[in-house]
Amino acid sequence: MKRLERIPVALVERTSLARGALPVLPQGLAWICLILNGLLPGTGTILSGLLGMCLGAPRFSARVTTEHRLLAFIINLTIGIFQAFTVLFCLVGWCWALGWGIILVKTSGKSNIFF
């Protein structure tokens, strides 16, 4: 599987830096991240950041650079840690992690990247 260097303009996130950090991944990997977020909140988000460095592409702009990949990893790592810690507060982190996983799956479905 080759590394994405460009993404469709329709997938570029213009409203939120955090959502732009969620990478476009192959659909199977996006499902794995969703399942991990359901089992242990934050783990799927952190994994999506790692996978975005290797296989996927962040959604900051249509052209993907190394700086975008690194920034997306740092943002996903931070968000994943916050998701894990906020599970203690009325399961907020769990709901947040599931929402993040659902966005990953929806984005991968729009990109038509499969195994």
UniProtKB/TrEMBL annotation:
Main location: membrane
The UniProt record lists the keyword Membrane: yes
TM region(s), chain numbering: 29-58, 70-103
Alphabetized UniProt keyword annotations: Membrane, Transmembrane, Transmembrane helix
InterPro entries xrefs: SPEC3/Stum (IPR026673)
Cellular compartment(s): Membrane
One GO location term (cellular component): sensory dendrite
Record's bilayer topology term: Multi-pass membrane protein
Keyword Glycosyltransferase assigned: no
GO BP annotations, alphabetical order: proprioception; sensory perception of mechanical stimulus; taxis
Protein name: Protein SPEC3
Organism: Daphnia pulex (Water flea)
